[in-house]
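Appendix B, record 7
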Amino acid sequence: MSHLRNLFHKTTGPEPIPLAVAPTPIQGNTAVDDLSTEAPATPATFPAEEAHLRAEIRLAYYSEPRSPAADRYRLLRMRLKELWRSGRLKKLLITSPLAHDGKSTVTLNLATALAERGKHSVLVVEADLHHSTLSENLKLRHWAGLTECLVDGISPLSAIRKIDPFGWCLLPAGEPRKNPTELLQTPVFGQVMQKLAPYFDWILIDSPPVIPLTDSLSIQQHADGSLLVTRAGQTPREALEQTIELLGKQKVLGVVLNGVEPRNHLYYQYHEYNRSSQED
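Structure tokens (predicted):
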């Protein structure tokens, strides 16, 4: 069973990015389009969808809240909230150097941790228009999503659903279209992000891996920072270094090393002892 270790490194970045965005008039016929911009939206505002995780997906923060992996997400949340409280971080790009590094699983766990059982409003944007991994992992039915916002001009708020039982919201990728990379390079994507920003405390953008595609380089222009996910024993060091260079060191907030199993570490020994005590 894999675990997650957070290797969070703060960097000296640019001046704090203003997060207050003047709301743009939103077109649409659904009730959620009339939300007030004076306060963040709550998950109860949006229609709900029930998630059913695929067997191979480990959402440790939800299913194993006392596990070492869940505790690592709490640490990651604590570090990210330091920037959030200072007004420097709201829209977080989550990506990886290569495919199969586990970025989508990290996104699901981090969104659940940041939501804190409804304490904060969290939106996950499925911006990987090549492979809608998040929707597949959650076994969700298909509905209009980001693609329809970019191509057909539908309101992004009308495409958001609250995902039960995790307590955060999702803007899915939507129906596949030709040339998804070009869709993300249009000004419309930035406009969508501006419309969404006033309604949520956190926006997590799950994007394609950096090296094979240029999508993340386009998306990061509309994010406040980036979080990289790598897999222990799999992601080459050269790939990680190249990814950081492409994104820019000032935009990379930290690195998550996924798939670590240090069973002999004192930290894990403590959790095994604590679990045994609870069972007794």
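Remarks on this record: The longest strand covers residues 252-260. Residues 68-85 form the longest helix (18 residues).
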